[in-house]
Write a structure and sequence with these properties.
The protein is an alpha/beta fold. The chain is 52% helix and 15% strand. The longest helix has 21 residues, at 86-106.
């Protein structure tokens, strides 16, 4: 229920569709989301994925009522030896959330977040995990775990790999909401736009990406992520290998022929 095709058949759309719960990332929602991401990954006809949401909130993050229920269970489990403890269930919840985020980062397809509303905690993490992000000027972002006594440690992973460390720590330590304009300024999103321009801008970007070589993107995107944590010489090593391998693939041969012939390449 989370997936649909865009107007361009090469663009896939994943849409969070539980606005009454502010698109909270419950255990059930995360499981369904991961299933959709895996299906999209295996569909060669989809070249780019737009991640969006229904309602006034992009995503409020984890379902706090679900976490509170597990906390209550934990208090009642003294000496309990059931099939699975509440701590194990919490571990499953946060592990599943991490799997969703890493699946987006490690996907061979570009992910574009389209945000019109509030994205907080794991919802902000979801935005930071996408390759590109565009938001309406009325959108806001936060990692407010400190306000409820639970530091946003897992959102910090995505946030810290997207924005400067001090900008990330500002959000993580204060829990404050930042505007879309400020989010663009620190690099959390690419651009803040008037809400009436948001759809057209995301369509423009996703459709442009869909015209590019899927082979080049599917091999190049993982290298960008992989090299970030490596020493300089190792980073150039894996990037150079990607360039060599890519030079011999059919898309590069076609692309260079098309450029020299002054024609549009056929991928």
């Amino acid at each position: 229920k989370y997936f649909k095709r865009g107007q361009n058949s090469r663009v896939g759309v994943i849409e969070l569709s539980n606005p009454s719960k502010r698109n909270a990332l419950s255990l059930s929602t995360l499981g369904q989301l991961l299933d959709v991401i895996k299906k999209v990954e295996s569909d060669e006809s989809i070249r780019v994925v737009v991640l969006q949401a229904q309602g006034p909130a992009f995503s409020s993050g984890h379902d706090l009522s679900e976490i509170r229920h597990l906390q209550n269970e934990a208090n009642e489990e003294s000496g309990y030896r059931g099939e699975q403890t509440s701590k194990e269930k919490l571990s499953d919840l946060f592990s599943l959330c991490s799997n969703v985020m890493t699946s987006i980062v490690e996907s061979t397809k570009p992910y574009v977040a389209k945000v019109d509303g509030v994205a907080t905690a794991a919802g902000c993490q979801l935005v930071a995990s996408c390759d590109l992000a565009y938001a309406s000027t009325g959108s806001k972002f936060a990692t407010p775990g400190v306000n409820i006594g639970l530091f946003c440690s897992t959102p910090a992973v995505a946030l810290g790999r997207t924005v400067h460390r001090k900008a990330a720590m500002d959000m993580l330590l204060t829990g404050r909401l930042i505007s879309a304009k400020e989010a663009a300024g620190i690099g959390l999103i690419n651009e803040a736009l008037a809400v009436e321009s948001l759809d057209d801008r995301v369509d423009e970007i996703s459709e442009l990406i869909a015209t590019k070589s899927p082979m080049a993107i599917s091999t190049g995107k993982p290298v960008v992520a992989a090299q970030l944590g490596l020493p300089l010489h190792e980073a150039y090593g894996i990037a150079s290998k990607c360039m060599v391998d890519g030079s011999l693939r059919e898309d590069c041969i076609e692309g260079i022929d098309a450029f020299l012939s002054k024609r549009i390449p056929v991928w």
